């Protein structure tokens, strides 16, 4: 069974289409994926996020809604991963920005021995359609440089699509402390330190309007979280960087 965690904050507009597409995709790939279940993690949404999620609950794709008392994407993903019990778990964003073929691609990598497969918008074969403003692009480049020092060799730490062996996800989620958007970096630092085999795969990524990441509101916090992660994880061993083709690292991240 595959359990998919979707953190959702005020996603009444974007979530229904994502769940519809997911249901269609899962139905088409039932033979490979087997049973699939969605856990939507909502915290303090002020719109109808929980209602639209419950309305999408079907036999073809069961959808459960979890509440998370702590605010932030990181806190929500952590709560979602800890609520899983499947052998294969994943998290993805409510906006459906990552093409769903990544699920089968990730599954193939798991069969080849990966413990964790992370979507990347920064590999040569990634297809991305970025439409971020200039301020955000400059901020994203600086962020990538700093994040890259914490997890060398990973081209895109921030893509909202990551797949795990269930036991690995739950083990690392227990330790996660970053509540905001930088939690992916802490996750990757801890996975590295635990010796997990992390494989980055190219994804197709489409910018979906309505982002909950507002650079003026969340940008500074994301950088501050990186500093805290560096401090907290300073004692963890960092195994050798994974090999990523040099020409591949071109974009990605906040
Ligand atoms: N539960 C919960 N989910 C959140 C919170 N903040 C963001 N999210 C979710 O995190 C996911 C990613 O957020 P997006 O709004 O797509 O932002 P992003 O992908 O980081 O940035 P873009 O590149 O602009 O899409 C979405 O599913 C959001 O609903 C939060 O505080 N709580
Ligand atoms: Mg997004």
Could you explain how this protein is built, in words?
The strands form 2 sheets. Strands 3-2-1-4-7-5-8 form a 7-stranded mixed sheet, with helices on both faces. The model is unreliable at 244-252 (pLDDT under 50). Helix content is 40%, strand content 18%. It has one domain (2-248): Alpha-Beta Complex (Spore Coat Polysaccharide Biosynthesis Protein SpsA, Chain A), CATH 3.90.550. The chain is α/β, with parallel strands linked by helices. The two termini are 31 Å apart. Helix 4 packs across helix 7 (166-175) and helix 6 (134-150) packs parallel to helix 9. Guanosine-5'-triphosphate is lined by residues 7-9, 11, 41-43, 71-73, 76, 93-95, 97, 160, 181, 211-213.
Give the key terms:
seven-stranded mixed β-sheet, Spore Coat Polysaccharide Biosynthesis Protein SpsA, Chain A, two-stranded parallel sheet, alpha/beta, binds guanosine-5'-triphosphate, 9 helices, 9 strands, disordered C terminus, 254 residues, binds magnesium ion, single chain
Topology:
Elements: E1 2-8, H1 15-28, H2 30-33, E2 36-42, H3 49-55, E3 63-67, H4 73-82, E4 88-92, H5 101-111, E5 116-120, E6 127-129, H6 134-150, E7 161-165, H7 166-175, H8 183-193, E8 198-202, E9 204-206, H9 215-232
Parallel strand pairs: 1-2, 1-4, 2-3, 5-8, 6-9
Antiparallel strand pairs: 4-7, 5-7
The protein binds guanosine-5'-triphosphate and magnesium ion.
The site of guanosine-5'-triphosphate (GTP) has 20 residues, from β1, β2 and α4.
């Amino acid at each position: 069974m595959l359990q998919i965690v979707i953190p959702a904050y005020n996603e009444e507009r974007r979530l229904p289409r994502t769940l519809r597409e997911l249901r269609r995709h899962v139905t088409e790939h039932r033979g490979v994926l087997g049973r699939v279940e969605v856990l939507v993690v909502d915290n303090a949404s002020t719109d109808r996020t929980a209602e639209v999620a419950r309305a999408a609950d079907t036999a073809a794709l069961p959808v459960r809604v979890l509440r998370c008392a702590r605010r932030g994407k990181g806190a929500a993903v952590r709560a979602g991963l800890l609520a899983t019990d499947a052998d294969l778990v994943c998290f993805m964003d409510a906006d459906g920005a990552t093409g769903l073929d990544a699920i089968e691609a990730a599954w193939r990598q798991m069969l080849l021995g990966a413990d964790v497969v992370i979507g990347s918008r920064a590999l040569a074969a990634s297809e991305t359609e970025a439409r971020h403003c200039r301020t955000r692009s400059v901020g994203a480049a600086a962020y990538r440089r700093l994040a890259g020092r914490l997890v060398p060799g990973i081209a895109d730490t921030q893509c909202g699509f990551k797949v795990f062996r269930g036991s690995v996800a739950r083990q690392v989620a227990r330790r996660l402390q970053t509540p905001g958007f930088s939690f992916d970096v802490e996750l990757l630092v801890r996975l590295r330190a635990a010796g997990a085999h992390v494989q980055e795969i190219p994804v197709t990524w489409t910018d979906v309007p309505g982002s909950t990441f507002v650079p003026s509101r969340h940008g500074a916090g994301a950088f501050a979280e990186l500093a805290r992660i560096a401090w907290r994880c300073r004692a963890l061993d960092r195994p050798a960087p994974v090999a990523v083709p040099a020409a591949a690292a071109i974009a990605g991240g906040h």
